[in-house]
Amino acid sequence: MAWYYGTFSCGHEGRVNIIGPTKDREWKKERAFNKMCPECWEKHLDEEREKANKEAAEKAKEMELPQLTGSEKQVAWAITLRQNLINYFNESVDDKMVMKGLSEYYGFIDITKEDILTIRDYIIENKTDAKYYIDNRSDRLWDYIEREIKNAIKSEKELIEEKAIVDIKLESTVYPDNKITNVVAEITVKDDKVTVMFEKNEDFRQLVKSLGYKWEGTWERKITEYTGKAEDRAAELGNKLLNAGFPIMILDEQTRNNAVNGLYEQECKRWIKFREKEKVLAISWQGRDDKLYKTARKLPGSKWSSPSVVVKIERYKEVEEFAQLFDFEFSKAALKAIEEYKEALKNVEVVAPVKVEENTPKDGLKEILNSSMKVLEDLKDD
């Protein structure tokens, strides 16, 4: 390794580090100094890059291409990369070897020149994030085709179906007069769950979480005996979102109207359940409520068994009175257990027991004193 000094083609003096056999170093030195110095070369690259970006921007304006999003530097570079991609596609479709290779080596047997240009146009129209062109700048033609062909080339049937879906969603969407966004929360109703899709938003997240929704790839609420009907929960969710300023989309017209008008059955959060193993009625409610707890604990034989106050099934009448006073509902299992207990009571023998009079212990002295006989001599006073 040795340093050699000289003058670069740009006129600046400097040095270069040359390694290898001594006999080769002279021509390596000559070749190195026939180039620009590192600083001038870097400046030259910047100028060429700026020139290419400017030309690409002018072409983009001339071709009326969509504007790209990103930082200023990202957009400037991505515009050039996009133009390179356009040129690459245009040159490829006219290259017979490329077209043959797509068919024979990459499995695109029926792809045509028109298909490739359609994919090109799809990318230009739909990929407006500068990051897309930067991240994929090294991809080959077949990479783009494989990634984008499904969305770019669709059958007439698929296009008709897509348009129908868009139209249906549009007519199923309502906007609140106090809307805070144009993005729509899509609510889907199924028998066993209600789901809602929306972009990342903290206010939205807090609202759906307060209604019992959990993130499972999308926000969803499982429908059980204790939640009420799916349609009611969907209408409730829609109503809360509308009042918070979020547009909603619900396909079912009745559920959508109920959301707008606030017509849904309130979710019951106070339940009398049944614990099969312990054969007890379990009094449950959401949140802390000292009054409910104290009143429930006054029921005969009650005790705390987290997370409920439990009472023996034999005390079902007292529990029914408690439930009526405080708007509790009985689960199906609890109702069944009570009915079975009542039925069991019917098979119990009911008898009228004979009442036995208790014998009163004899008071002999009293009898003597109350008798007409003379007082016994030995009982008289001296």
Word description of this protein:
By secondary structure, this protein is an alpha+beta fold. The protein has four domains: 2-35, no CATH class; 45-152, no CATH class; 174-261, Alpha-Beta Plaits, CATH 3.30.70; 270-346. Helices cover 49% and strands 14% of the residues. The protein is built from 15 helices and 13 strands. The protein has helices at residues 22-33, 38-62, 72-93, 96-104, 113-126, 130-135, 141-152, 156-171, 202-210, 230-243, 253-261, 290-297, 316-325, 332-346, 364-370, and strands at 2-7, 13-18, 173-174, 185-189, 193-197, 214-215, 219-222, 248-250, 270-275, 280-285, 303-305, 308-312, 329-330. The strands form three sheets. The chain has a six-stranded mixed beta sheet with strand order 3-8-4-5-7-6. The chain has a five-stranded mixed beta sheet with strand order 11-12-10-9-13. Helix 2 packs across helix 3 and helix 10 (230-243) crosses helix 11. The termini are far apart. The model has no long low-confidence stretch (mean pLDDT 90).
